[in-house]
């Protein structure tokens, strides 16, 4: 049964389409004349953005997020924003840059220290003061963070990744120009694309799914199932790139308003313990988490509606009208092999790490959204299968 009580919130303004980056200048100028631009590890990719902003009268300074954003990185970013007198923050890059910019925008107006607001390792305090205006421009098709209310940060001291979460963190503007993803190399296309796919699959199955998010998920699953292989094999296939950008956006809208599941329950702790890209972790886990969930659901024998939803997932992924849940999982296993996704052992996973991962994942908010309650044994089975 689909829950009939829900609420929905997202970015106030979503701008989608090819060649729309040029529109960001006057939009940014509405919020002020000085911007901190938060980019990824290659800030030179933001030259076109800087030119557009400055031609509209917005002076800029740049902060480069190398790797995934950490607690200390965003603290430094908040200090830089204050020192430059920034009126607004513009995030430009993949999920790391966008999450970093999102966190910085909140910290500038809320004391500069993220620790009191963090889940799991902090006090989980509410962010009360309105962040600096934040505009998000993704250059990969993966996380959908341009429309979500959380920023994922690494705490190296705790060897975990945790969320800074608040409805106030939702960007004011999300501008998605699929042409910005044309330069993404095949390996990054693969794992960011599989992250996007995961983020339309898990909200479709999770406990807090609803009628609005179901529409986003169904659209995203259909698009990604045929566009992701094309984008991987031909990075200049603009239609495939556009459809993956739509999938990423749909996933962000869905997860922000429904939740996720076991894949992301593991991905946060794993990413905090090992130097692995978030999307690659999700990709390695996805088919195995789906299979263990399906086995557990069949043992329960009490929710035929949810079992039919797994079967529908099989039809959406394969495009076959009579496909089953098992067919869908087989398709996922095939696609991660086709896209060259490595197992988790490649990032350093050892047998001794598994109990710690299971314990951390069991406490994550994503795991609480999983469609069925998994036992520690079942969680260990997922990790072992993904190695």
Explain this structure to me?
With 387 residues, the protein is of the alpha/beta class. It has two domains: 169 residues, Rossmann fold; 200 residues, Dehydroquinate synthase-like - alpha domain (Dehydroquinate synthase-like, alpha domain, Up-down Bundle). Helix content is 50%, strand content 11%. The chain has a six-stranded parallel sheet, sandwiched between helices. A two-stranded antiparallel ribbon has the order 6-7. α9 packs across α14, α10 packs across α11 and α12 packs across α14. It is globular. The model has no long low-confidence stretch (mean pLDDT 95).
Shape assignment: globular
- Looking at CATH, the homologous superfamily of the largest domain is Dehydroquinate synthase-like - alpha domain
CATH architecture of the largest domain: Up-down Bundle
Output the radius of gyration. Answer: 20 Å
The tally of domains stands at 2
């Amino acid at each position: 049964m689909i829950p009939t009580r829900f609420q929905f919130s997202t970015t106030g303004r979503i701008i989608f389409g090819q060649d729309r980056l040029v529109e960001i200048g006057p939009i940014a100028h509405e919020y002020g004349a000085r911007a901190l631009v938060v980019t990824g590890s290659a800030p030179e990719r933001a030259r076109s953005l800087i030119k557009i902003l400055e031609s509209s009268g917005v002076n800029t300074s740049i902060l480069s997020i190398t790797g995934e954003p950490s607690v200390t990185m965003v603290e430094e970013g908040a200090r830089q924003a204050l020192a430059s007198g920034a009126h607004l923050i513009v995030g430009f890059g993949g999920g790391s840059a966008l999450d970093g910019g999102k966190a910085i925008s909140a910290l500038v107006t809320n004391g500069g220290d993220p620790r009191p607001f963090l889940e799991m390792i902090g006090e989980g305090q509410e962010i009360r003061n309105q962040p600096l205006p934040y505009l998000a421009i993704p250059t990969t098709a993966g996380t959908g963070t341009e429309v979500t209310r959380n920023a994922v940060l690494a705490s190296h001291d705790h060897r975990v990744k945790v969320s800074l979460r608040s409805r106030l963190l939702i960007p004011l503007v999300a501008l998605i120009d699929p042409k910005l993803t044309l330069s993404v190399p095949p390996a990054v296309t693969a794992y960011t694309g599989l992250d996007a796919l995961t983020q339309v699959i898990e909200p479709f199955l999770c406990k807090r799914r609803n009628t609005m998010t179901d529409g986003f998920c169904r659209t995203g699953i259909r698009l990604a199932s045929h566009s992701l292989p094309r984008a991987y094999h031909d990075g200049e296939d603009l239609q495939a790139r556009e459809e993956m950008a739509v999938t990423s956006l749909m996933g962000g809208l869905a997860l922000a308003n429904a939740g996720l599941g076991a894949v992301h329950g593991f991905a946060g702790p794993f990413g905090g313990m090992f130097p692995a890209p978030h999307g690659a972790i999700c990709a390695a886990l996805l088919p195995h988490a789906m299979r263990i969930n399906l086995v557990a659901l069949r043992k329960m024998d009490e929710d035929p509606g949810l079992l039919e939803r797994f079967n529908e997932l099989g039809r959406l992924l394969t495009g076959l009208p009579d496909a089953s849940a098992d067919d869908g999982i087989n398709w996922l296993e095939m696609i991660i092999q086709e896209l060259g996704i490595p197992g988790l052992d490649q990032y350093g996973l050892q047998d001794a790490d598994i109990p710690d991962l299971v314990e951390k994942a069991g406490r994550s908010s994503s795991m609480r959204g999983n469609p069925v309650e998994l036992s520690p044994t079942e969680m260990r089975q997922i990790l072992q299968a993904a190695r």
